[in-house]
Predict the 3D structure of the following.
Amino acid sequence: MRRDIFQAIADPTRRAIITLIAVQAMTPNAIAEHFDATRQSVSKHLRILTECELIKSEQKGREIYYQLEINKMKEIDKWLEQFRKIWEDRFDNLDKLLAKMQHK
């Protein structure tokens, strides 16, 4: 089953995993140390993130390291951009209204 990237980031644990590996690639055990969850639970989250192509794994010797797929994160940013423009327009309008009210 192909998962949607928004399904993946909907879960707070998966968002936390993304934040952890954004800085550096990590092994599943190193990731699991940051959570009050079983190694199997963390592995499930890693599998979902991998299926969504938000992270990728790389074998280095006997260890598997997970790292962030920054290009996939750009898809999320692109989708959010449409809302960012709306928010900025609304804040600009609010700033103008507040300035107008202060001058009265």
